Amino acid sequence: MEPQEPDKNPVVQQLRGWNGAAVAGVVEFRGETTVIVPREYLRAACEYLATEPSLRFSFLSDITPVDRFPIEPRFEVNYHLLSIDRRARIRLRVKISGKDAVLPSVTAVWPTANWHERESFDLFGIRFEGHPNLKRILMPEEWEGYPLRRDYPTEGPR
After folding, report:
1. Is residue 108 in some structural domain?
2. What is the torsional sign of CA 32, 33, 38, 40?
3. Which of 16, 63, 104, 153 could connect to 116 by a Cys-Cys bridge, CB 3.0–4.6 Å?
4. Cα dihedral across residues 98, 102, 20, 79: positive or negative
């Protein structure tokens, strides 16, 4: 498969055609395309990618947060999408501040987001508005802090 210019990717072109403001940037690295989406367009972009008949990104395979502390915006949250029908992949990336680490939940679009969002909340402290059951999934309920944040004490809570 020949490498494409990020702006020539048909999924990026279609997403821009649907709503140009939903694409803040595009990164192409090692044959993988990442679309940077502003937080306010995340849910709508996900709904579009999942339901548009010519795209049908019907599977959310993973949500992976990255803590860039001390850089702001502190967090990047990556949504790894798969179109089984088209054998295509794309990644959405949303950048959010450490002071306002809140994103809209996409559980209504892809039910598999449920546990991915809970894990991101549990380990990074990122909140997902509209999540049906946002509570810890790995750490005990009484645990203080978020162990995968870069400023979490390496010796554990004090």
Report:
1. no
2. negative
3. 63
4. positive
Residue 64's closest CA among 84, 44, 78, 47?
78
87 within some domain? yes
First vs last C-alpha separation in the chain: 52
Q: Is 112 inside any structural domain? A: no
Show pLDDT as tens, one digit a residue, over the chain (158 residues).
444 555 689 999 999 999 999 999 999 999 899 999 999 999 999 999 999 999 999 999 999 999 999 999 999 999 999 999 999 999 999 999 999 999 999 999 999 999 999 999 999 999 999 999 999 999 999 999 999 999 999 876 66
How many of the other CB atoms lie within 10 Å of CB of 153?
10
Domain that holds residue 15: 6-100
The fraction of the chain above a pLDDT of 90, given in percent, is 90
CATH number of domain containing 66:
3.30.460.80
- pTM of the entire predicted model: 0.92
Write the CA distances from 42 to 78, 130, 156, integer angstroms: 11, 13, 34
Encoded amino acid at 87, one letter: R
Q: How far apart are CA 3 and CA 112, in angstroms?
A: 30
**What's the CA gap between 145 and 122, in Å, rounded?**
9
Residue 70 inside a domain? The answer is: yes
